[in-house]
Amino acid sequence: MKILVTGGLGFIGSHTVVELQNKGYQVVIIDNLSNASLDVLEGVFAITGRVPIFEKLDLKDKSAVQAFFKVHQDIQGIIHFAANKAVGESVVNPLMYYENNINTLVYVLQELTKLKVSNFIFSSSCTVYGQADIMPIAETAPIKPAESPYGNTKQIGEEIIQDTCNINAKLNSIALRYFNPIGAHESAKIGELPIGVPQNLIPYITQTAIGLRDQLSVFGNDYPTIDGTCVRDYIHVVDVAKAHVVALQRLLDHKNQTNFEVFNLGTGTGSTVLEVIKAFEKVSNTKLNYKIVDRRPGDVVSAFADTSKANLELGWKAEHTLEQAMLSSWKWQKVLK
Ligand code: UFG
To answer: Counting atoms of ligand 1 from 1, which one is nearest the CA of 231?
Structure first.
């Protein structure tokens, strides 16, 4: 069964390709290599022994998208990761984000809905909840005004899919709202490849520990949490990847209850920044150089998932602990150096 993975050479995309191949799916990857490397294909091959079909294609090129789908009429499902994802960059360059995250989604949906079978999995984010009033956050929590153009593209993306599902009963779609995916494949053949100075906590920690950065800045310790630092739900990327395969299978088996469904992907446990640092120091047996600095604008205090809907309806549960995820990130950093 042929599955298209857009952005399949990226962090979550590549781990999902591995899990799809492990389940016997034939994978076609589209990636424009703007934030990914062709070497990832070798990493995937080293793990699964199979090379996915790869097409370097920019989804902003509408005629190229149309031509691609003419050749691949037999696609049974799409997992759509391709998008820009840096919150700060989106504030500086909103139009790039709207073009790259919204136009491309529209082009893919236009072609997908022409196929006989239209199964679609969308990368969404817990950012759609903003600072939720109730913890843990259930899928029924209100969508808050977006904090950034990036966050807005996820909200608008979900609306575009919902609107299209409303008038097209043949289109079946699931939006997966990720909390904070971290870690790397246990083989350390694939992992996160941040370009430049990492914005996210875990690559910043591992780069500091290996000596690429002098010191981690912890953004604020005066939040109303157990130790004053922000709380997030850090989930191992392999658990996130497996959830995509389960969600896709749900659509292929016609087990979805409506043609647009939403699920949280998290562990259900919140961890503070200092707890993450402690977990890292324990598994790496190193001492991390960090200092407390001012709050980072735009950070929510706390966000962790109510996972009961995904657990019950998808039959999926995150299996890895925070320490396992931190250890896998550290192993990956040591391979990268
Ligand atoms: N943090 C630091 N120092 C750093 C980096 C991060 O203290 O150098 C802290 C942040 O203040 C935050 C926590 O670590 O409390 C996690 O920060 P990340 O940047 O790793 O993750 P965020 O929760 O801010 O962002 C993630 C995704 C976004 C998404 C957002 C939704 O990276 O794509 O969740 O809430 F929009």
So the answer is: 15
